[in-house]
Design brief:
The structure is a homodimer of 501-residue chains. With 501 residues, chain A is mostly helical. Helix content of chain A is 64%, strand content 3%. Chain A is built from 21 helices and 3 strands. In chain A, helix 3 runs antiparallel to helix 4. The model of chain A has no long low-confidence stretch (mean pLDDT 97). At the A-B interface, helix 1 and helix 2 of A face helix 1 and helix 2 of B.
């Protein structure tokens, strides 16, 4: 006899397959599709998404879900079954709140807003984008109303990226980061230690970069038998199952860092997906639980591991052998310092491990102000530059290098940005706990090895996929809610050493 | 007000998108998917195919189709609308005849038969494959019964690959080919002119091969703005729209021909899809009309163009510059002769332009004999070797080099093989007509140029997609049914010249 849960699972498998198929089409679009294939691809992806949305939001799906819930009764909270039903109830409720009219309108506005943004950025002309951003803000406001919230509108949006996390919590944490990071950055400036990254800006053959990036990703623990490295303009990671979790990189012929550390970053994302438990196969639980936790895994591999002294003492000889002309006379220590240079800059995606957080705090503040009506869109450029001055001490000479730099605001996706900085904080808190629970992790790391760390991540984080919300996960794993303290301890120790504070 | 035809079209777009999405997943499986991604990929493709089959065979689809047919009345036979309804009625009727039980069983048997075949081929042990081939023959017999036929069972199967073409017609044409090709081959043997292809068997750098293959494909008229060249183990062409028609190639480091002519072959397939009329977008008509006509386009580009003297007189200098060490002292004429060497051999996919047809005639005969119960599967190896002796004058020393060489018989796909040889015949008949209608084609070809030929193909064949059956098309285009005579004129002239008959 088929149980109600099995009946639910049948639909879940179908929906997961549709979602993953859309993912393959999207990956192919970015990696292999010829330029003129775009029209048909948009139609194909639209059809899959429409089918998927119709199936998921049907009354029949709701019945299957409630029947399964009734059958499970008070099953163990941690079980796959209870976790899946819990997740689906939340997702089903959210999906049913979105009206078709809204989705259609939102896609239309976003498409046109993106065109306008590209033009505005190219011409350094904020006015071109302004009316579209105004519409996007209205879409965000509508979204917050549709989803509903208890305390403040931003909660409704943030919740979609970081389930259960409140704006007020994030604000308090970011305030604490700011209170400690500003003085740390000032101390570095005042100390005036020279750290040069000139060696990274040389001519680096791209095929050799690729070969080394593969080597480094494997050194972290990324499994190429269950992965693939593609070339794209805007790098990302994506997975079609735990056994097919891919990474992508953009290659620069005259700058080593972005491709190398980009690959390590995306490897961290993909390793999370590769580590989900096999029992979650073909369900929406077989994914990272939130953008913030996902970013913690990529940041851990990019920064805590990939920019550590141990990693480069172990692997720099290989890099040196790959690029003898460029790095033959450089020491591992010099390289380590070069890849950890900190300096205020205009562009978020090029920012270092410390200043990156200020770029996020700025966006978090401005999103709330626009959403709440405290900041008119027309005043955004001024507000942006004021905040840059306060937080980073530099003011971008143009809006292209300022408030027009990111594509995120072409969509009603307020609430996405803060997850980037939350990722840094989660990463440090997880890592501190990992080392305290298993000292081998630290000794391996000093030798550039990650087996023990990856095993710990798999056991404590990866295998669970989306079973727990980020708040639940950080509490379970570190016995404490998210805080800024671990990150500040990590950052202060590392940069005090490098800059001789 | 929405017309019945528009209501039909809405469903057709959805179904086409699903089919193309499945195609993208399949292409990705062959080109980029990591080995362990296979389990999830099979599930994902299975879900898309099941959704598609369910939607297409629904009563609702039948109603939409008949409502549209009624609305159209006696619309112009050549119109997109009448052609689509005509095509869909045929496809709908066929799809409704297939029982779910049959599809499930057929997929199961085919999967296991493929495993057994791989083992049998590796171990040169026909007995391992025999029981599975027996089941595949039964599946073919069931299929013929389900589809139904007037004259003989093979008709029902052939019709699925070459709509409206009868076994008796093909038999008569193949007999005529045989009657003329055997003496031509004998004359070549007796004349004894030495043609060597040793120059093709040297070390050829793969990146340079790729660059030249791209150049050659573009020289034919393949549009890379609407295409992509991927690397695979078993080459094929596929399209996701006329603006995204891809080719694939396998690269050999020490043999120039397979990759180069394979690329030209697949380019011919893809150019057919690139040439379908834009008005057929998102319908099943935006594809080649049959396997045989499709093969005529690939064979035309591979052989009639790609193995012509004019093509190599024009493009050999470029190839020579790419490979100065290997081809520096070779003339264009020597190269032209080398790529046209004819010699009996065991393996179909390695056969030359003349002997290839014998390999197909052999399989066509044996398929009918097995289907009709005139040949027991256990006697296949003997029957195979006897026919090889008769047609080609050579007998494979092992079954691995004989009846176990192709994967086709792991599926109930009898009727597929003959389309390969039909492609050669269609190609020659089309080409003869093209040249007679536009003499510029011949003069351009003598200079290695294809613009006029491609324009003619586009106008007369490509743009129609699947609007006409192969019988209708050859009659419309050449004012005559398919015959062997154009091919024999072409082959006799070309090989008499090369071999000095």
């Amino acid at each position: 006899m088929t149980t109600a849960y099995e009946t639910l699972l049948e639909k879940v498998h179908e929906l997961t397959d549709l979602e993953k198929a859309t993912g393959v089409l999207s990956w192919d679009k970015e990696t292999n599709m010829p330029p003129k294939g775009i029209t048909a691809r948009i139609d194909q992806m639209g059809t899959l998404q429409r089918l998927s949305h119709t199936l998921f939001t049907s009354d029949e799906m709701g019945e299957r879900l409630e029947n399964a819930a009734a059958e499970l009764g008070d099953a163990d909270y941690d079980s796959d079954e209870a976790s899946l039903v819990r997740y689906l109830r939340r997702a089903y409720g959210d999906a049913r709140k979105l009206t078709t009219d809204y989705v259609v309108r939102s896609n239309q506005i976003s498409g046109q807003a993106r065109e306008a943004w590209m033009k505005a950025r190219a011409n350094n002309e904020f006015a071109t984008f302004q009316p579209w951003l105004e519409q996007v803000v209205v879409l965000c406001q509508e979204l917050a109303s549709m989803y509903g919230y208890d305390d403040e509108p931003y909660d409704a949006l943030l919740d979609k990226f970081e389930t259960g996390t409140k704006t007020a919590e994030v604000r308090a944490i970011f305030d604490a980061v700011k209170a400690e990071l500003v003085p740390l950055r000032q101390a570095i400036e005042e100390r005036g230690t020279a750290v040069s990254d000139d060696i990274l800006h040389q001519s680096y053959d791209i095929d050799s970069q690729k070969a080394f990036a593969r080597y480094a990703a494997e050194a972290l623990g990324y499994d190429f038998e269950r992965g693939h490295l593609g070339t794209v303009v805007h790098p990302f990671a994506t997975s079609f199952s735990r056994d097919d979790a891919r990474i992508t990189t953009r290659w620069y012929p005259d700058f080593l860092s972005p491709s190398l550390f980009g690959t390590l970053h995306e490897s961290g994302h993909a390793m999370y997906e590769q580590g989900t438990h096999p029992s979650l196969y073909r369900t929406p639980l077989a994914r990272g639980t939130s953008l913030g936790i996902h970013e913690s895994q990529s940041r851990m591999m990019e920064n805590i591991v990939g920019r550590s002294r141990g990693f480069w003492q172990a692997h720099f000889p290989k890099l040196q052998a790959t690029f003898p002309d460029q790095l033959g006379s450089v020491t591992a220590e010099q390289f380590y310092r070069a890849v950890n240079k900190t300096q205020p800059s205009y562009i978020r995606v090029e920012a270092d491990e410390l200043t990156y957080n200020f770029h996020i705090i700025l966006r978090f503040d401005l999103e709330q102000a626009m959403l709440n009506g405290d900041l008119a869109v027309k005043d955004l450029p001024t507000a942006w530059n004021d905040k840059m001055q306060t937080l980073l001490g530099v003011v971008p000479p143009t809006d292209t290098l300022g408030c027009l730099q990111d594509p995120h605001w072409t969509r009603p996706g307020f609430g996405y940005f803060p997850t980037y900085a939350l990722g840094n904080l989660y990463a440090a808190q997880f890592y501190e706990t990992a080392v305290s629970q298993n000292p081998t992790i630290a000794s391996q790391m000093a030798a550039g090895q990650t087996e023990a760390l990856v095993a710990w991540l798999r056991q404590n984080i990866h295998q669970h996929g989306r079973k727990f919300t980020p708040r639940e996960l950080i509490q379970r794993v570190t016995d404490s809610p998210l805080s800024h303290t671990a990150f500040m301890r990590y950052a202060t120790a590392k940069f005090s050493d490098i800059y001789g504070l």
